[in-house]
Amino acid sequence: MTDYSNIISIAESFGCNYTENESMSEHTTFRIGGPADLFVVPTTVEGLAAVVSACNKEGVYCFILGNGSNVLVSDKGIRGVVVSTAACLNNIELIGAYEIKCGAGVKLSRLSDLACENSLTGAEFAWGIPGTVGGAVYMNAGAYDGEMKDILVSCEYLTPDGELRTMLADEMDLSYRHSAFSENGCVIVSATVRLKAGDKGEIRAKMDDFMCRRKSKQPLEFPSAGSTFKRPVGGFAAALIDECGLKGCSVGGAQVSEKHAGFVINKGGATCFDVMRLVEHIKKEVFLNKSIKLECEIRVIGEK
Ligand SMILES: Cc1cc2nc3c(=O)[nH]c(=O)nc-3n(C[C@H](O)[C@H](O)[C@H](O)COP(=O)(O)OP(=O)(O)OC[C@H]3O[C@@H](n4cnc5c(N)ncnc54)[C@H](O)[C@@H]3O)c2cc1C
Fold first, then answer.
1. Quick one: CATH architecture of 92-203?
2. What is the dihedral of CA 110, 126, 263, 291, to 10 degrees?
3. Do 296 and 68 touch, CB atoms closer than 8 A?
4. Which atom of ligand 1 is nearest to the CA of 105?
5. Fewer CB within a 10 Å sphere, N or C end of the chain?
6. pLDDT tens-digit map of 275-304
7. Mean pLDDT for the stretch of residues 11-19
8. What's the 138 CA to ligand 1 centre distance in angstroms?
9. Ligand 1: centre distance to CA 131 (Å)
């Protein structure tokens, strides 16, 4: 068992909140996941930097958690530290006429809403994606022909040593569900987006339309982590899964949604093991029937 006493005393000295053996099912939209050894909620950027750099110095695994809407945590949980951005990185402000600077813990819905209230268009696509700005930059989240790449100007981030730096959007290697942050081990602290002047009524109508489409097509009534698989070259994961007759297919409490075959849902009491067995079954069937290899969009983390 790793000794976390030094990290705990650093967290305490910076006024961070923390718990030991925190169940990750409480912090993921899938409602799945065993305990994290140490769960830290910093209240300042300094506290965040101190905890991240202490983990780095001690060689302790450190996972940055946004809203937990794109992660599947293993049943054994996480051997290491989970740092939640929710409390310390939630400032949002309008800068000049067209830019909005958001802390990484700000929910995308708040960004879309503030943009709309200020008659700024470009962030409508993010309305209804249940993540934080940090998670959205990391994933280059997108929907309905829009993605973070279209609106991002720059990010402030912490290196693993806790140093605060800035990166411009064109240095972020943004592509389909990928950014430089997927590989560089840095922590996104804030993001600035640039939008365009628009009509408030039209912006709100577009957001409402996107939300209506989500509600009618997606199984939002069940816990999930959104689309299970990335869009493969030459097709759509949901259509391929549907054509393989897998809608409704289940393993334990995990099920291919009857409403949207691209979603694996937690019907009740699903474990990570259930989801992973179902995922492997889907991948096998799609490859056998369609010769297409599906790749997970969801990030699977924790002790195997
Ligand atoms: C019902 C539903 C619908 C969805 N619809 C969409 C959709 O339309 N389009 C879409 O793209 N996604 C969608 N998703 C997936 C998910 O909401 C997005 O990927 C979102 O951007 C994840 O944000 P998060 O804050 O929840 O990140 P998390 O799930 O908490 O984390 C995701 C990854 O980002 C990293 N991360 C988070 N914050 C930071 C940070 N500050 N610094 C560094 N790394 C960080 C984490 O370490 C992790 O690797 C959906 C999910 C659900 C449940």
1. 2-Layer Sandwich (3.30)
2. -160
3. no
4. 41
5. N
6. 999 999 999 999 999 999 999 999 999 999
7. 97
8. 8
9. 5
- What is the residue whose two structure tokens read 């650093």? 10
**Segments making up each domain of the chain, as ranges:** 5-84, 92-203, 219-301
Determine the Cα–Cα distance for residues 80 and 59; give it in Å rounded to an integer: 10
Per-residue pLDDT for 86 more than 90?
Answer: no
156-200 pLDDT per residue, tens:
999 999 999 999 999 999 999 999 999 999 999 999 999 999 999
Query: What's the distance, CA 196 to chain centroid?
Result: 25
> Do the beta carbons of residue 223 and residue 265 sit within 8 Å?
yes
In the structure, what pLDDT confidence band is assigned to residue 222 with cuts at 50, 70 and 90? Answer: very high
Residues contacting ligand 1 via CB (< 6 Å): 29, 63-71, 85, 104, 129-132, 134-136, 138-139, 141-143, 181, 187-188, 218, 220, 224-226, 299
Q: Which CATH number is 5-84 given? A: 3.30.43.10
Architecture of domain 219-301: Alpha-Beta Complex (3.90)
The set of catalytic residues is 177, 227, 297
3-state SS string for 123-155: CHHHCCCCCEHHHHHHHCCEECCEEHHHHEEEE
> If we measure between CA atoms, which residue out of 70, 120, 67, 66 comes closest to residue 97?
120
> Which 3 state secondary structure label does DSSP give 114?
helix
Pocket test for ligand 1, best of 26, 30, 69 (most atoms within 8 A of CB): 69
Residue-averaged pLDDT of the chain: 97
SS3 content of the chain, % helix, strand, coil (to 5): 35, 30, 40
| Structural tokens at position 190 | 């804030």
